[in-house]
Design goal:
The protein is built from eight helices and ten strands. With 250 residues, it is α/β, with parallel strands linked by helices. The radius of gyration is 18 Å and the shape is globular.
Amino acid sequence: MTITQHPSTRTLAVAAAGLTKTYGSGGTRVEALRGVDVGFEAGRFTAIMGPSGSGKSTLMHCLAGLDTATAGSIRVGGREITTLDDNELTRLRRDQIGFVFQSFNLVPTLTAEQNIVLPLQLAGRTPEAAWMGHVVDVLGLGDRLRHKPHELSGGQQQRVAVARALLTRPDVVFGDEPTGNLDSRTGAEVLSLLRRSCREMGQTIIMVTHDPVAATYADEVLLMSDGALVGALTDPTVESVAAALTGLGA
């Protein structure tokens, strides 16, 4: 198994230093993150992998401002977020961060187009027509905008979720098992679209996954174990990812 250490000097969309997260106290104390130092290069697709309980989901939730770190620094788009209050975090997640989750989280009574523009409308902003058209075109949703979620396939619903995440031009899009509820063919389609968003729109993607096949769509795979970053794989293959995970006891 060949693991290259994660570089630390790059143009970073998201960075963390000395990141610690603990739950409980005394005999029930759990150290979910143990002084993690990590940076995610702008315009790249990064997957985070590791055994169950390795801290990968906790890391993503802290980086995205969905959970509060116990100690350490987190910067999104160059802005320190650990000192923000609840209202500031809400604005950060609305304006600078996009989310694509395992469940599509679409509003069932709204059309695909209405779901896509909803975050901007909640922020009192008007979608930029040219950018909206580009995102819709790249994701192949032009003939589905008037459809409601129940009229769309699972893959089409996830495309709508991706479009919603991209429309605000966030500094980073976080994906939490974004293909977990999709069949392999549809999952491959969504992952290809995420990769295209990096290549064609310069988007930064950070994805947590347990699937070695999904990880091969990323430029790099970060490996976690026991709350710590333990290495990285560049240009991952199914074989290299599977070997790395086996070495970590996954």
